[in-house]
Amino acid sequence: MKVKNMYKKPLYDTRQITDLRDMIMGSVEMYADKTAFLTKPVKGKPYVPVTYKEYGDDLKAFGSKLLEMGLGKDKKVAILAETRYEWYVSYLAVVTGLAVIVPLDKELPPEEINLMLKRANCNSIIYSNTLREKVLEAAKGVESLESFILMDYYKNEVEPFTVRDTEPDLPKEYSFTYLVNEGQKLLDNNYRDYLDCDIDVDEMRILLFTSGTTSRSKAVMHSHHTISTNLISMVSMIHIGDDTVLSILPIHHTYECTCDFLCQVYKGNTIAECEGLRHIPANLKESETTLLLGVPLILETFHKRIWRNIDKQGKREQVEFALKLTRALRKIGIDLRKKMFKDIHAALGGHLRLIIAGGAAIDPQVLADFDDFGILALQGYGLTECGPILALNRDIHNSYRSAGLPLPGTEAEVVDPDENGIGEFRSRGENVMLGYYGDPELTAETLKDGWFYTGDYGFIDEEGFLIITGRKKNVIVTKNGENVFPEELEALINRNPEVAESIVSSAAGRNGDMEIAIEIYPDAEALKEHFGNDDYTDEEVLDLMQELVREFNSKQPLYKRIKNVSIRHEPFKKNTSQKIVRNYRK
User: Are both 542 and 487 inside the same structural domain?
Assistant: First the structure.
């Protein structure tokens, strides 16, 4: 679909970059004295700032030593750690020094990490102290490994250089600080191999393992050019600058890495480390965060807590009146949202101006409510294969129900649409991956004539917005040929305060047809309020959830009605981060 004047207003000016080295060196020069990172050496203690100059110095020193050690062209370096300063240094030092970076999920078991290290033929692995034993186990039998690099604590509690005594067959282990110090000595002696190395912007330099349609993860190949193109395009859509972001998502994910790390460094912003999910409110306040990237589960949790607190105080009617009043005043150019809803702003740190949701579809009502409270909330859409951003809502032109407009230089269209205009999205542009590493057959299936087939279903509206209805592999097809998208039903059920999350699937029904089933993760806090105590039984909770589903079914056509309801407690209570990752479209 061709839409005239799709962006409505001119795109924002951007700094042109040729590659990620050009990006970081330019930012170090332009923003030398600005704070690049707010680090947390000790949890519970104040943030420790690191300037762009300090970051640049560490990058050059670490990169120089890695190159001098032989970790240069076509070598592959895995990185396995929680979000921390050394991760940021390691990533760009490797990428801008001709080696290939391979970010890995720290939550994976050793046997899966072992398979990825072997598939990627990794030559080195950089890891944190907390994951040392897991790395030792995962590294066994990986013949390509030449060195281990341990991220030591900020207090230098490990030796600067050690030889592994317990595993004599494994390579030597170096400490991060030792290598940085040795790299600085090289630079002091005019070593320039790292500083002067030529980068081929079209070669693979980033290898990302992501979920696939089979049990074997896909390995996505990206170059300096694909990622740099994505950075330039996304910041032309939204005004980003002089912001502080709080990094709350797993850093190995492309969404977090490209948008919350590389994009912020490109724009000269400050990145604050988060101490953990339960510390988000405190970290938002302490860091004075202005920009937050999150997945739907986190933002929907914020949203439910806001309304729950409003109801606890008996102020729902008062707040709803204030919302109507501020909406009317905005139409005549008067904006009182920050004043009228100051308590909500304070609960989110007091400085938050913009929230961007990604990773999966989000309830449009959540975005609308945040906007009504005075915090602009936008949705974007992407996949690892697209670097990751494919489409994005603009801060000056957006649709709550949509995943956004295609980025400049990116095309998107619907393949074989049905009578409702719904079909699979495909996209092409310079941000699209090089292919899947070691898998030409899968590459050929997914990349056809320059088009990347996303596996997502949806349609494009008259203004050019992409409306995602669900994943191709998740679609439930009823006996009479109707398509049911689980994501749509989940979003509606999740609006109930008693529901933390839900999973819609199909189950075998009568007469060979498929019935819709739902597994609900109740919200413990909301249940306590509903029952007046926490002494409720599973039978009572199930009755409540079935009643919520009956209410939902009464408003749906027959083919969308949910037949089977079950509840789950412990997995969601015990490990919220697992649920967040599961909700994230990799």
Answer: yes
Task: Specify the pairing of strand 204-210 against strand 483-484.
Answer: unpaired
User: Residue 576's pLDDT band (boundaries 50, 70, 90)?
Assistant: very low
Which DSSP state fits 153?
Answer: -
Contacts of 583 (CB under 8 A, 6+ apart): 295, 296, 297, 359, 360, 501
List the single range of 177-191, 224-238, 327-341, 471-485 with lowest mean pLDDT.
471-485
Out of 414, 448, 471, a domain closes at 471
For residue 540, the tally of other CB atoms under 10 A from its CB is 13
Give me the pLDDT at residue 525, please: 86
| pLDDT, average across residues 147-163 | 60
Cβ–Cβ < 8 Å for 427, 390: yes
Q: Are 83 and 247 in contact (CB under 8 A)?
A: yes
What are the CA-CA distances from residue 418 to residues 335, 456, 558 (Å)?
43, 14, 20
**518 domain-assigned:** yes
Residue 576 CB neighbour total at 10 angstroms: 18
- The pTM assigned to this predicted structure is 0.85
Contact by Cβ (8 Å): 436, 218 = yes
Domain that holds residue 551: 475-582
Both 461 and 495 in one domain: the answer is no
Residues 464 and 491 in one domain: no
Structural domains in the chain (count): 3
Regarding whether 194 and 171 lie in a shared domain, the answer is yes
Bond into 388 cis (ω within 30): yes
CA triplet 489, 493, 497: central angle to 5 degrees?
A: 160
Segment 345-360 shows an average pLDDT of: 94
Q: Which residue has the tokens 């317990």?
A: 166
Domain end point (choices 198, 225, 254): 198
Same domain for 466 and 486, yes or no, is no
Q: Are 559 and 357 in contact (CB under 8 A)?
A: no
Percent of the chain with pLDDT over 70: 90
| Residue-wise burial string across 175-208, b where 16 or more C-beta atoms lie within 10 A, e elsewhere | bbbbbbebbbebbeeebeebbeeebebeebbbbb
pLDDT of residue 511: 63
Match 């979920």 to its residue by tokens: 211
CB atoms within 10 A of CB 2: 6
**Mean pLDDT, residues 104-119 taken together:** 94
- Cα–Cα distance, 538 to 235 (Å, whole number): 48
For residue 354, what is the DSSP state? E
Give the separation between CA 583 and CA 521, rounded to whole angstroms: 13
Report whether pLDDT(479) > 80.
Answer: no
pLDDT at 168: 59
Rg (CA), the chain: 25
Token pair recorded at residue 228: 């740099």
Identify whether residues 455 and 516 lie together within a single domain.
no
